[in-house]
Design brief:
Blueprint: E1 15-18, E2 27-30, H1 36-44, E3 50-54, H2 59-64, E4 67-72, H3 76-88, E5 96-97, E6 99-100, H4 108-116, E7 119-120, E8 124-129, H5 161-174, H6 181-194, H7 201-206, H8 211-216, H9 218-230, H10 236-261, H11 272-286, E9 291-294, E10 300-302, H12 304-314, H13 336-346, H14 348-356, E11 363-365, E12 371-373, E13 376-382, E14 388-393, H15 395-402
Antiparallel strand pairs: 1-2, 2-8, 3-4, 3-8, 4-6, 5-7, 9-10, 11-13, 12-13, 13-14
Helix pairs in contact: 5-6, 6-9, 9-10, 10-11, 10-12
Length: 411
């Protein structure tokens, strides 16, 4: 951040009061007219949480009230433009700043407006902020750590996971949550296992299944056999069927990975050094299970196809062939789910509003609407069903727009 008493570094004149001299970690800045680049120097670059006091009767005051609390929201192009202007000494003629506001004092619609349309800089009377910024945490290997992740060890030895899962899924359904397909399959499979293969046809209908589906849906049978296996209730026939189903589903996973790998034009570029990576890819897919990434009446989840699509393209440990040209996540593969959950949380209000509108198209955040989190911008796409379709850093698309001759391809 620019020195608070360095008025010569500012484009306009301000009165800056630093209360740290009084033992209070707070700064207030007053000015007749705020400059876009000065605001970046003061609070934007360091992403300080800021209160923007608005001039009485200004257009922004009429729209949002006396003040707006939040962090300035920049897309990658805006940050690049600002950094270049600072180095060159050029002006950036911006009249609006966009603010990512957590405040519940304004409506969801207004929060969306102030985030993507913004307020006029000329409407700002003063700003106040805490000059505090969390230091970036990294592993010894250089990858970033996902902030605010606390691991708590719990003794679950006396907990029956199947009863717990059945009660959890049934409770979610009764509360109005729309279960994901894999959750429905788990619930039906567990119920069948607990009732010796019997289930009420009304329960099947409730979750969109028919009696014919019970014969062909292998995921339901896998859920059933896992319950019986944990209870040591497997007959010889059960063990034989379980083994066959495992083999079929494993082959299906291999085929899905192989299909995704064809997009890399791997056949003509595979090196001996990449053969180990291919083995690791099949190993990590083998143990993947679909899960919920954002809870609510309408949930966001990822399934095997989501995981394969995202991992092969953007986890550096699994990039081969043409996928090596894509921007990798600056995180460990084991932190991917936590990263996605944190990024989704940044736009949770927007996702909930999207689902409540009974959508027919995908929810997307690309380009200027990319999601800023822990120093990076992210693009994502969620289908109307709640399935995470795409997730990657904004680096690829941004670099391609800034350098049209670049080889990096879009997701």
């Amino acid at each position: 951040m620019a020195p608070l008493n360095a008025q010569e570094a500012m484009r306009n004149q301000y009165k800056i009061i630093n209360y740290s001299d009084l033992g209070l970690p707070s700064v207030e800045v007053y000015g007749e007219r705020f400059h876009y680049q000065d605001i970046y120097d003061l609070v934007g670059k360091s992403q300080f949480m800021t209160t923007f006091e608005l001039k009485i009767d200004s257009l922004s005051f009429q729209e949002y009230g006396g003040s707006v609390l939040g962090v300035i929201f920049y897309d990658r192009k805006a940050i690049s433009s600002l950094e270049n202007s600072i180095q060159s000494g050029c002006e950036v003629p911006k009249e609006r700043i966009r603010i990512d506001s957590p405040s519940r004092e304004i409506s969801e619609e207004k929060r969306g407006d102030v985030k993507y349309r913004g307020i006029r800089t000329e409407d700002i009377a003063s700003i106040s902020f805490l000059p505090f910024k969390r230091e970036l945490e990294t592993y010894d290997t250089g990858e970033k750590k996902v902030p605010d992740i606390i691991e708590i060890k719990v003794d679950c030895s006396d907990i029956d996971p199947d009863i717990l899962n059945q009660n959890y899924l049934a409770s979610k359904h009764k509360s109005g949550t729309e279960l994901a397909q894999f959750e429905k399959e788990q619930l039906v499979g567990i119920t069948l296992a607990f009732n010796n293969g019997s289930i009420d046809s009304r329960v099947l209908k409730t979750f969109g299944f028919t009696r014919e589906d019970l014969k062909t849906n292998l995921e339901i049978w896998m859920s059933l056999y896992k319950v019986k296996e944990r209870r040591n209730q497997m007959s010889d026939i059960d063990k034989k069927n379980y083994s066959e189903i495992e083999g079929i589903l494993s082959l299906d996973k291999i085929n899905r990975v192989a299909k995704e790998l064809t997009a890399t034009e791997l056949a003509g570029t595979l090196r001996d050094s990449e053969s180990g990576t291919i083995k690791n890819i099949f190993e990590m897919v083998k143990y993947f299970s679909p899960s919920i990434l954002m809870h609510g009446e309408k949930q966001v989840y990822w399934d095997l196809d989501s995981y394969i699509h995202i991992s092969l393209r953007h986890l550096k440990d699994y990039q081969v062939g043409g996928f090596k040209s894509k921007t990798p996540f600056p995180y460990k593969a084991s932190d991917l789910r936590s990263l996605i959950e944190k990024v989704l949380h940044k736009v949770e209000v927007e996702v909930v509003a999207y689902f409540s509108s009974d959508p027919t198209s995908d929810f997307t955040r690309h380009g200027k609407m990319a999601i800023f989190y822990n120093g990076d911008h992210y693009h994502l796409r969620i289908s109307a069903s709640g399935r995470l379709v795409q997730f990657h850093t904004a680096g690829e698309a941004f670099n391609k727009s800034m350098h049209p001759t670049a080889n990096a391809s879009a997701d």
